[in-house]
Specification:
GO terms for molecular function: ATP binding; ATP hydrolysis activity. Its EC number is 3.6.3.17. This is Xylose import ATP-binding protein XylG. Helices cover about 35% and strands about 25% of the residues. By secondary structure, it is α/β, with parallel strands linked by helices. It has two domains: about 180 residues, P-loop containing nucleotide triphosphate hydrolases (Rossmann fold), CATH 3.40.50; about 70 residues, no CATH class. The strands form three sheets. The chain has a six-stranded mixed β-sheet, with helices on both faces. A four-stranded antiparallel β-sheet has the order 2-1-4-5, with helices on one face. It is globular.
Length: about 260
C-alpha cells in the first residue's frame, strides 16, 4: 500500500476582511518530492504558505499529516509536526556569524557555558553534508553573498530535522550561478527524502527541480501538472487564465464556439 502524503490540504479557505484570499484549495506533497506552487501576484501562494506554517490559520478546511487529521493554529504547531519555512527576507541576523545564525535559539551549552567548539564542528559538518561552499563558518552573515545567505537560511531550517520544507521565492534575488548552486541544494535535500513546497515565478527553476507544479489563480486551484510532461506554455496559460478563457470561448452557449 502506498504511503499517504506527508502533508495534505483539502478545501482550505482564508478570508482577510472583505478579501477572500483562498477558496477551497487542495494541495499535497509526498516525501522525496518537490511541488512547485505557481501563480500570479495575489493568487494566494504566500497566504497558503502562511496557513501551512501556522502564521495565518485557515478559516475552513482540513489538514492531514501522514494520513492523520491535525490542526495548525500557530507556528509552534507547524514546528512540532516537522514543518520548516524559509521566507524571502530570510530572517537572518547580519551581525552574527554563520554558526551563530544556525544555532540561534538552539545553542549548545555545557554546564551553562556555550560550547562554541561543538557548534562550529556541527556547522562545518552540515555545510559539508549539503555541499554548501562557505569560506568560513565564522564569517559574519553580512559578508556573505546573496546565494550563500540563502543556503545558510535553508541549512538553519534543516537543523530540527523537519519533514516538510517551505521555500518562498528562494532564487528571486540571485544571479545565474548562485541560482544553479541553490537548485542543486534543493535537489540534494529532496533526494534525502524531504518533501518540499517551492513558491516560484521562474519557470526555468520549476522545470529544473520540481516533480509537480500546482497553479493557484485568484485564490483557487487552477491546475496540477507533472513537470516531466507539461510545457512552460501550459503552466503560463494556467497562471494567466488563458487556458480557462479558451475553454470558455469554445463552450460558449453549451456548444463548441470557434473564432
Amino acid at each position: 500500500m502506498a504511503h499517504p502524503p506527508v502533508l495534505a490540504l483539502r478545501g482550505i479557505s482564508k478570508r482577510f476582511g472583505g478579501v477572500q484570499a483562498l477558496v477551497d484549495v487542495d494541495l499535497q506533497v509526498r516525501a522525496g518530492e518537490v511541488v512547485a506552487l505557481a501563480g500570479d501576484n495575489g493568487a494566494g501562494k504566500s497566504t497558503l504558505i502562511k496557513v501551512i506554517s501556522g502564521v495565518s490559520p485557515a478559516d475552513r478546511g482540513v489538514i492531514e499529516w501522514e494520513g492523520h487529521l491535525v490542526q495548525i493554529k500557530r507556528p509552534h504547531d507547524a514546528h512540532a509536526l516537522g514543518i520548516a519555512t524559509v521566507y524571502q527576507d530570510l530572517a537572518m541576523c547580519d551581525n552574527l556569524d554563520v554558526v551563530g545564525n544556525l544555532f540561534l535559539g538552539r545553542e549548545i551549552d555545557r554546564v551553562g557555558i556555550l560550547d562554541e567548539v561543538e557548534m562550529e564542528r556541527r556547522a562545518r559538518e552540515l555545510m559539508r553534508t549539503l555541499s554548501i561552499r562557505i569560506p568560513d563558518v565564522r564569517m559574519p552573515v553580512a559578508a556573505l553573498s546573496a546565494g550563500q545567505r540563502q543556503a545558510v537560511a535553508i541549512s538553519r531550517s534543516l537543523m530540527g530535522a523537519p519533514k516538510v520544507l517551505l521555500l518562498d521565492e528562494p532564487t528571486a534575488a540571485l544571479g545565474v550561478e548562485q541560482t544553479s548552486h541553490l537548485l542543486d541544494l534543493i535537489e540534494e535535500v529532496r533526494d534525502r527524502g524531504m518533501a518540499i513546497i517551492l513558491i516560484s515565478h521562474n519557470m526555468g527553476d520549476i522545470k529544473a527541480v520540481a516533480d509537480r507544479v500546482a497553479v493557484l489563480r485568484l485564490g483557487r486551484n487552477n491546475g496540477l501538472f507533472d513537470v516531466s510532461t507539461v510545457t512552460q506554455e501550459q503552466i503560463i496559460s494556467s497562471v494567466t487564465g488563458a487556458a480557462d478563457n479558451a475553454v470558455a470561448h469554445r463552450t460558449k452557449g453549451g456548444k463548441e464556439a470557434w473564432p
